[in-house]
Input
Amino acid sequence: MVPFGGWDMPVQYTGIIEEHRCVRSNVGLFDISHMGEFEVRGSGALAAVQGLTTNDASALALGQVQYSLLCYPHGGIVDDLTLYRLADDHYMLTVNASNIDKDWAWVTEGGRGGTWTNVSEATALLAVQGPKAEGLVQRLADQDVTRVPYYHFARGKVAGAPCLISRTGYTGEDGFELYVPAERSPALWHALMDAGKGDGIQPIGLGARDTLRLEMKFALYGNDIDDTSNPLEAGLGWVVKPAKGEFLGRAAIEAMRTAGVTRKLVGFEMAERAVARHGYRILKDGQAEGVVTSGSFSPSLERCVGMGYVRGRPGYRRHRCGRGHPRRGPPGPCRQDAFCSFTRQEDLGEHDGEYSGGPPLHQGARVGQARGRQGARGHHRLRPGAAGRRGLRGAAQGRRQGHGHEDLRRSGVGQGRLRSLRAPQR
Output
């Protein structure tokens, strides 16, 4: 057990690698009740949310979820969050545990016009993640959860407990996050564990949660993003929608978009069996080129991977990328910065409105694939292989230096791509 966001949290139950592989191949159960939940309602709720967050909340249909950011006026990130449209004038923000007090002060001060309520203490949150998550929740639910699209939610009962059943997660796998009254959560936990025995369910700790998100290149606040990170540097331009109008941080973000980023958050692979730790320098030809933000052994790849910021020339350039847009198909002119080899168009916020609001799933996740299920507005379908485009990539040649030097040697970051993160026939 370790202290985390004011809670005592388990790092592992049976072992990080075993738990990680359980989520990738079967189903895992996470207690993430440490997360914070804020509700805002009233006729001014939408305007309050729009002025605080970077994404376009007006695009949300009832029952839809959106990944978004809170930003400072200078463009740094206050926190990343998920935004739920609960009713016409009623929204919920789910924020990181370590930022609850800071975020609460930020939204109540800057989000005037709506009536805010902090429901964090009254709300528990259990995440059921993995290829067998849908079947498990379906057996216990009082409605057909297979009809809930990715980054949407429904209200119902699971094992008799009233829940907001959200098809979201932080692992890259299919699954659900179940918001339940705190007093009902122990019974729900035990019901899920009992019903999931035949699926090989395991409880999952913080350690595996970190390795699962790292394989997907999902940012962790405090490591990969913080108040010094601009969304464009962090590859989160796809959740910045300047066309919606003014919001906190808009001017600074757009100024960087015009001037060009000078560093970029990238994924890399270690050439040797050594873990790149947070704060290690990234070197090229003996010169510091960046810094590691996250690193770990990847149980799916069976090698060490990481993320970090590396420097590059500022400014955008027009070119034919040759790859084509991952959602539009044929190659054509696209606008990317000097990090062309590892920058996606959606990193910079191009093609606003094409993506429904959530990050991609792991290549093996099967929400909506084959079934071709559409979302609330008839436009959302999950794309096979999305994680292969969005997961960790790059071919950094790295090693720890002797005598405790916290350095990495970099060669060709972003020039290649890791193989599929789904290990075959596990």
